[in-house]
Design goal:
four-stranded antiparallel β-sheet; mainly beta; 208 residues; single chain; seven-stranded antiparallel β-sheet; Protein Transport Mog1p, Chain A; 2 domains
C-alpha cells in the first residue's frame, strides 16, 4: 500500500477556517469525519467504512473505495446487505448509482451443489432478459473468489435504454451458507467502475 495516504488530515478554507477533518486508511477516508461551517461549528458527521465482516456467513468483504457505503441491512429470514456508491453520471447525462447486494441463507438442501443453487437463484432475474456473457468457475485462471464451491456469471441486460453489466457470484461455504452477491453497474460509464466491482470480488475471504 506504499504511497497511499494514512493517518489524520485537516482541510481548511482559503480564509483559514477549518472545513473538514478525519483519518485516512490506505488512501480511503476511514472512521468519523467532521465537517464545519465558517464559524467552526460541526454541521455534519459522516462515518466511513469499507471493510466488513459478514458474521452471518463468516466472510470478509472490502468495498472498492470510500465512495461506497452500507445503505441498508435486514434480516427477515434472508439476511441482506445492500451497498451503494455515490452517484456517477452516464454518457447520456443520467445519474447512476451502482449497487452491490449480498444475500445469505441456509443452503443445506442444495447438498453443496453450486450449479443447482446458482440456477435457482438466477431465476429471480427472469424479467430482465439477462444475457450470460461468461461463466467463471474456480478452475479458471485468475478466478477471484477464494472458495472452491463457487462460481460467477458475467451477464448483461438493458433497462431504461441503459446497458448494464451484472456480476452474479454464488458461493456455498463449508458451513452450508448460501451466498448470493450481485454487482450492477451500467456499461455506458467509465470502465473503472466495473473494475471497482471486480476489486470487491477479489477481496472476499473466509473469516478465521
Amino acid at each position: 500500500m506504499d504511497g497511499l495516504e494514512n493517518g489524520g488530515s485537516v482541510y481548511y478554507r482559503e480564509d483559514g477556517s477549518k472545513l473538514y477533518e478525519g483519518d485516512f486508511k490506505n488512501g480511503n477516508r476511514d472512521g468519523e469525519w467532521k465537517y464545519y461551517d465558517e464559524n467552526g461549528k460541526v454541521i455534519k458527521t459522516t462515518i466511513f467504512k469499507i471493510d466488513f465482516e459478514i458474521k452471518e456467513a463468516k466472510i470478509f468483504i472490502r468495498l472498492p473505495n470510500d465512495e461506497w457505503f452500507l445503505n441498508e441491512k435486514s434480516d427477515t429470514g434472508l439476511v441482506q446487505y445492500f451497498f451503494k456508491r455515490d452517484q456517477i453520471i452516464a454518457q447520456n447525462g443520467s445519474a447512476i448509482i451502482p449497487v452491490i447486494t449480498l444475500y445469505i441463507e441456509d443452503a443445506k438442501s442444495y447438498k453443496q451443489n453450486i450449479e443447482m443453487f446458482s440456477s435457482e437463484k438466477k431465476m429471480q432475474f427472469g424479467k430482465k432478459s439477462l444475457v450470460v456473457n461468461k461463466v467463471i468457475t474456480s478452475s479458471d485462471k485468475d478466478f477471484p473468489l477464494r472458495f472452491e464451491n463457487s462460481m460467477i456469471l458475467k451477464t448483461s441486460y438493458t433497462e431504461n435504454s441503459l446497458n448494464h453489466t451484472l456480476y452474479m457470484a454464488y458461493i456455498i461455504t463449508k458451513d452450508n451458507k448460501g451466498i448470493q452477491l450481485y454487482m450492477d453497474a451500467p456499461k455506458d460509464i467509465d470502465p473503472k467502475y466495473e473494475k471497482e466491482l471486480w476489486t470487491s470480488l477479489q477481496s472476499i475471504k473466509e473469516l478465521r
